[in-house]
Amino acid sequence: MQGSLKRKRIFAAVTDVFIFSVLVRVLLFGFYQAGLKPEGALFLSLFSGGVLNYVGIPLFLGKQTLGMRMNGLMYSFVKKGTFENGLILTLRFIVQFVLNVVFLGAPLALNLFCLLWRREGRTLTDQLFSRVMSIDYSLVIRKG
Predict the structure, then answer these.
(1) In 4, 51, 68, 76, which residue has its Cα 20 to 30 A from 60's Cα atom?
(2) What is the DSSP string of the chain?
(3) Stretch among 16-20, 76-80, 87-91 having the lowest mean pLDDT
(4) Residues 139, 78, 10, 121: is their CA dihedral positive or negative?
(5) CA–CA separation, 107 vs 125, rounded Å?
(6) pLDDT in tens, 60-71
Protein backbone atom coordinates (compact mmCIF):
# COMPACT_ATOMS: atom_id res chain seq x y z
CA MET A 1 0.00 0.00 0.00
CA GLN A 2 2.82 2.41 0.86
CA GLY A 3 4.42 1.83 -2.56
CA SER A 4 1.24 2.76 -4.40
CA LEU A 5 0.94 6.00 -2.41
CA LYS A 6 4.53 6.87 -3.22
CA ARG A 7 3.88 6.10 -6.88
CA LYS A 8 0.81 8.37 -6.82
CA ARG A 9 2.91 11.21 -5.39
CA ILE A 10 5.57 10.74 -8.07
CA PHE A 11 3.01 10.68 -10.89
CA ALA A 12 1.24 13.73 -9.42
CA ALA A 13 4.55 15.63 -9.26
CA VAL A 14 5.48 14.69 -12.84
CA THR A 15 2.03 15.71 -14.10
CA ASP A 16 2.19 19.02 -12.24
CA VAL A 17 5.66 19.82 -13.61
CA PHE A 18 4.44 19.03 -17.15
CA ILE A 19 1.42 21.32 -16.75
CA PHE A 20 3.67 24.00 -15.24
CA SER A 21 6.05 23.81 -18.22
CA VAL A 22 3.18 24.17 -20.67
CA LEU A 23 1.81 27.18 -18.78
CA VAL A 24 5.26 28.80 -18.69
CA ARG A 25 5.73 28.35 -22.45
CA VAL A 26 2.32 29.82 -23.26
CA LEU A 27 2.86 32.77 -20.92
CA LEU A 28 6.42 33.29 -22.18
CA PHE A 29 5.15 33.54 -25.75
CA GLY A 30 2.49 36.03 -24.66
CA PHE A 31 4.99 38.17 -22.76
CA TYR A 32 7.39 38.13 -25.75
CA GLN A 33 4.55 39.27 -27.99
CA ALA A 34 3.73 42.04 -25.51
CA GLY A 35 7.26 43.38 -25.98
CA LEU A 36 8.92 42.52 -22.67
CA LYS A 37 12.66 41.94 -22.51
CA PRO A 38 13.60 38.22 -22.55
CA GLU A 39 14.87 38.16 -18.95
CA GLY A 40 11.80 39.88 -17.57
CA ALA A 41 9.47 37.75 -19.67
CA LEU A 42 11.14 34.55 -18.45
CA PHE A 43 10.99 35.55 -14.79
CA LEU A 44 7.41 36.78 -15.08
CA SER A 45 6.25 33.67 -16.94
CA LEU A 46 7.92 31.34 -14.41
CA PHE A 47 6.39 33.18 -11.48
CA SER A 48 2.89 33.62 -12.92
CA GLY A 49 2.82 30.04 -14.29
CA GLY A 50 3.76 28.74 -10.86
CA VAL A 51 1.15 30.85 -9.12
CA LEU A 52 -1.50 29.61 -11.56
CA ASN A 53 -0.49 25.96 -11.29
CA TYR A 54 0.37 25.65 -7.60
CA VAL A 55 -1.92 28.28 -6.00
CA GLY A 56 -4.78 29.15 -8.37
CA ILE A 57 -5.73 25.66 -9.50
CA PRO A 58 -5.69 24.16 -5.95
CA LEU A 59 -7.92 26.97 -4.70
CA PHE A 60 -10.28 26.46 -7.64
CA LEU A 61 -10.34 22.64 -7.49
CA GLY A 62 -10.65 22.42 -3.72
CA LYS A 63 -7.12 21.74 -2.42
CA GLN A 64 -5.86 19.72 -5.41
CA THR A 65 -3.49 20.41 -8.28
CA LEU A 66 -4.36 18.70 -11.55
CA GLY A 67 -1.77 15.98 -10.91
CA MET A 68 -3.12 15.38 -7.42
CA ARG A 69 -6.67 15.22 -8.76
CA MET A 70 -5.69 12.57 -11.31
CA ASN A 71 -4.03 10.48 -8.59
CA GLY A 72 -6.57 10.91 -5.79
CA LEU A 73 -4.43 13.07 -3.48
CA MET A 74 -5.41 16.24 -1.64
CA TYR A 75 -3.78 18.91 0.52
CA SER A 76 -4.90 18.73 4.13
CA PHE A 77 -4.71 22.01 6.07
CA VAL A 78 -4.73 22.56 9.84
CA LYS A 79 -7.03 25.58 9.51
CA LYS A 80 -10.09 25.31 7.31
CA GLY A 81 -10.47 28.90 6.04
CA THR A 82 -10.06 29.56 2.32
CA PHE A 83 -8.00 32.71 2.90
CA GLU A 84 -5.58 30.90 5.21
CA ASN A 85 -5.29 27.99 2.77
CA GLY A 86 -4.54 30.38 -0.08
CA LEU A 87 -1.96 32.17 2.01
CA ILE A 88 -0.25 28.88 2.93
CA LEU A 89 -0.22 27.74 -0.72
CA THR A 90 1.21 31.10 -1.79
CA LEU A 91 3.93 31.01 0.88
CA ARG A 92 4.74 27.40 -0.06
CA PHE A 93 5.13 28.34 -3.72
CA ILE A 94 7.21 31.46 -2.97
CA VAL A 95 9.54 29.47 -0.69
CA GLN A 96 10.02 26.84 -3.41
CA PHE A 97 10.53 29.50 -6.08
CA VAL A 98 13.08 31.52 -4.07
CA LEU A 99 15.00 28.41 -2.99
CA ASN A 100 15.20 27.16 -6.57
CA VAL A 101 16.33 30.55 -7.91
CA VAL A 102 18.90 31.17 -5.16
CA PHE A 103 20.34 27.65 -5.13
CA LEU A 104 20.13 27.19 -8.93
CA GLY A 105 17.61 24.34 -8.91
CA ALA A 106 19.33 22.19 -6.26
CA PRO A 107 16.13 22.00 -4.12
CA LEU A 108 14.25 20.70 -7.16
CA ALA A 109 16.76 17.87 -7.49
CA LEU A 110 16.61 17.26 -3.73
CA ASN A 111 12.81 17.01 -3.91
CA LEU A 112 13.09 14.51 -6.73
CA PHE A 113 15.53 12.38 -4.74
CA CYS A 114 13.29 12.58 -1.65
CA LEU A 115 10.30 11.44 -3.71
CA LEU A 116 12.22 8.52 -5.15
CA TRP A 117 14.32 7.28 -2.23
CA ARG A 118 12.56 8.12 1.02
CA ARG A 119 10.07 5.56 2.24
CA GLU A 120 7.23 8.03 2.79
CA GLY A 121 8.18 10.20 -0.21
CA ARG A 122 8.00 13.54 1.62
CA THR A 123 9.75 16.42 -0.13
CA LEU A 124 11.72 19.30 1.36
CA THR A 125 8.72 21.64 1.16
CA ASP A 126 6.45 19.03 2.76
CA GLN A 127 8.81 18.95 5.72
CA LEU A 128 9.03 22.75 5.95
CA PHE A 129 5.24 23.16 5.97
CA SER A 130 4.37 20.01 7.95
CA ARG A 131 2.84 21.99 10.87
CA VAL A 132 0.25 23.75 8.71
CA MET A 133 -0.47 21.33 5.87
CA SER A 134 0.14 17.83 4.55
CA ILE A 135 -0.87 15.53 1.72
CA ASP A 136 -4.02 13.57 2.51
CA TYR A 137 -3.94 10.02 1.19
CA SER A 138 -7.34 9.01 2.49
CA LEU A 139 -9.12 10.60 -0.47
CA VAL A 140 -10.00 8.00 -3.06
CA ILE A 141 -11.45 9.24 -6.31
CA ARG A 142 -13.24 6.58 -8.28
CA LYS A 143 -13.59 7.08 -12.00
CA GLY A 144 -16.80 5.98 -13.63
Answers:
(1) 4
(2) -HHHHHHHHHHHHHHHHHHHHHHHHHHHHHHHHTT--HHHHHHHHHHHHHHIIIIIHHHHHTS--HHHHHHT-EEEESS--HHHHHHHHHHHHHHHHHHHHHTTTHHHHHHHHHHHHSSS---HHHHHTTTTEEEE----PPP-
(3) 76-80
(4) negative
(5) 9
(6) 988 889 998 898
